[in-house]
User: Which sequence fits this backbone?
């Protein structure tokens, strides 16, 4: 792929070498990631093929068309985001620390790949791929994970079913909207944004008592197995 150096001279960039043993599909997705990061959501198949060091027909052979490639990218990134947030919710931290940790995990994820995030959340006019709405299923699952965390960790009394569901969705929507604005405007460093959002959430969460941790029953051992019944005498 040709680029211009500081003196205006044309140069050719060499496609990044793939790690030995990396599956071909992963190589192509990694190349697509790099191009989207560099060129934005409108990255072309020509640019992605050049980055991977292949011809376009090979790219089409793996993904069908650009829609298929975008679908594979969105699946990769939404699954990774969900797994990252789920791990943050399971960290054994004090409540305020956990609130900040989960928010920071999400903001760090979108900050690390801003152009991929825009691909997943901001559809281009007439985009047939639906990529701009690709984050919606993952956000729904994140809301459900937060709901479960509130239900199992925070004592909200009789209102627990209602509040945990409402808070799970409200927290997800708030962090999504605020994170989108923060990524676009960059009004402050990420730690300050985390603190601002955590302060907003903290009122009722700080006042609620903690629920005791749920302890799974021990797995039955060999000694717990039922002894066979003695045969009846005839």
Assistant:
């Amino acid at each position: 792929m040709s680029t211009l150096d500081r003196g205006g001279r044309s140069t050719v960039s060499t496609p990044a070498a793939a790690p030995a043993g990396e599956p071909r599909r992963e190589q192509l997705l990694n190349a697509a990631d790099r191009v989207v990061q560099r060129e934005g959501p409108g990255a072309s198949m020509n640019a992605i093929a050049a980055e991977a060091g292949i011809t376009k027909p090979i790219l089409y052979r793996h993904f069908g068309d650009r829609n298929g490639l975008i679908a594979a990218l969105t699946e990769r990134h939404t699954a990774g985001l969900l797994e990252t947030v789920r791990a943050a919710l399971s960290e054994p931290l004090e409540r305020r620390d956990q609130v900040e940790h989960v928010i920071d995990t999400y903001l760090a994820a979108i900050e690390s790949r801003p152009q991929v995030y825009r691909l997943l959340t901001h559809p281009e006019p007439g985009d047939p791929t639906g990529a701009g709405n690709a984050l919606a299923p993952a956000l729904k699952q994140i809301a459900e994970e937060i709901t479960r965390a509130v239900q199992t960790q925070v004592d909200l009394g009789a209102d627990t079913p209602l509040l945990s569901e409402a808070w799970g969705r409200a927290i997800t929507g708030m962090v999504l909207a605020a994170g989108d604005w923060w990524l676009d405007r960059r009004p402050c460093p990420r730690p300050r944004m985390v603190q601002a959002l955590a302060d907003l959430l903290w009122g009722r969460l700080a006042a609620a008592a903690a629920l005791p941790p749920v302890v799974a029953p021990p797995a039955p051992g060999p000694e717990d197995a039922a002894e066979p019944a003695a045969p009846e005498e005839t």
In short: The longest helix spans residues 160-185. The first strand starts at residue 2 and ends at 4.
